[in-house]
Amino acid sequence: MTIRRQGGRGAEPGRTTQNRSHVAPSAGGCGDELAAAEFFAGMGLVRRALEAEAILGEAAPAPGRRLWRTVFANDYDPMKRRIYSASFDDADSVLNGDDIGELSCGEIPRADLWTASFPCTDLSLAGRGLGIHAGQSGAVWHLLRLLEETPDQERPAHLLFENVMGLLSSHGGADFRALVEAVNRLGYGVDPVCVNASCFVPQSRARLFLLCARLEMRSIADPETVEPCSARPARIVSAMRRSADLLWHARPLPALPTRRTGLDQMIEDVPDDSPLWWAPKRAEYFLGQVHPEHLATARALINGERVSHTPAFRRVREVMDANSGVKKKRSVIELRTDGLAGCLRTPKGGSARQIVLKAGRGAWRVRLMTPLECARLQGVDELPDGFRDIDLQFGLGDAVCVPAVRWALDRLTEGAVETRENTKATQSLFSASA
Fold this sequence. Notes:
It is built from 13 helices and 11 strands. Helix 1 (45-51) crosses helix 12. It has helices spanning 45-51, 78-87, 91-94, 140-149, 166-169, 174-185, 234-242, 280-289, 292-302, 371-377, 389-397, 402-413, 421-430; strands spanning 34-39, 68-74, 95-96, 113-116, 158-164, 188-196, 206-214, 308-320, 327-335, 355-360, 363-368. It is an alpha/beta fold. It folds into 2 domains: 34-260 and 397-433, 3-Layer(aba) Sandwich (Rossmann fold), CATH 3.40.50; 277-369, no CATH class. Strand 10 and strand 11 form a beta hairpin. The longest helix has 12 residues, at 174-185.
């Protein structure tokens, strides 16, 4: 695996000497490892969560943690597959590039877990609101088709779905119910939880995880008895109660951890003479675009006694025009001063790329966030070399936060019990509509 690490002062940020580490070929279910199949694999960050013993952003590995061995990965995007292949030595034997709609269950090795970080395009605030039955987000139904076509005795014990919190409210909650009901019909109970990347790394990125286990493995929960907690907030509990007729699991959950890393620990030490810093004229223009409500903050940072790094985004907002006294839409810069970076996004436009303001002691500099900084905000301290920054940032914006996924995985397999009567409950629940 060829990686890029922080090179220290004087090294070009994100471009370092190449090191190669070997990732052994996958072999499902070896020793204490369980086999996993990864769908919508992207650049492979779910796999990092599956296989890593220690993860950036974690205080310590969870006691008794089970590790997984990836035996199959599928993604249709050629660039993401290239990055995946550069990250894992066994990619040739594991990675499949077919459209998921054209896959057959016979192509998928037997596994204990299927993961699906399916497209959020039609469920996110920035999307078109098409929902789960159309557009890119509808690709999840191909995964469920593959699961349905798999003989029951060969289906995985666990499923893990990941998407934006907008899935809960899409089409008034109908999309969330449809997905859970479909998973129930295939013999799985569903435990929905919310994990924010900010519990591990300084990035605001709340995501919905559906922890799914075969019905015979866990007892069915009555949503009316489920109490909200940090990982299962009231919004999720309300959604469960609105569909109390479905088959829910509700694991006892530990409190989400408190983050131990700050934003400055994510930031590369970029030399003052690096071409990454914007030219003075462009930096002045940046300051002139700062939202009026953020301008005093920007000046306080510039005049502060310590040098700080503050993330910023470009936004289109209605701002009062000083000449006409009328609010007009214009592009402005908004600063984030709560110690968190904003949610990483794919760099499809100028407003999607996160900016770093370095300010203090009467001076300031401005640049775009580097790929390595974006990687660290996703819980990764290394990236494959030989790729354009824009391609790495696109892959990272579409990816998952590794420690958040790992926390969900740890919850997925702990405390499983044999309650085979739940299989009968499933047959009874859905027999009328079968």
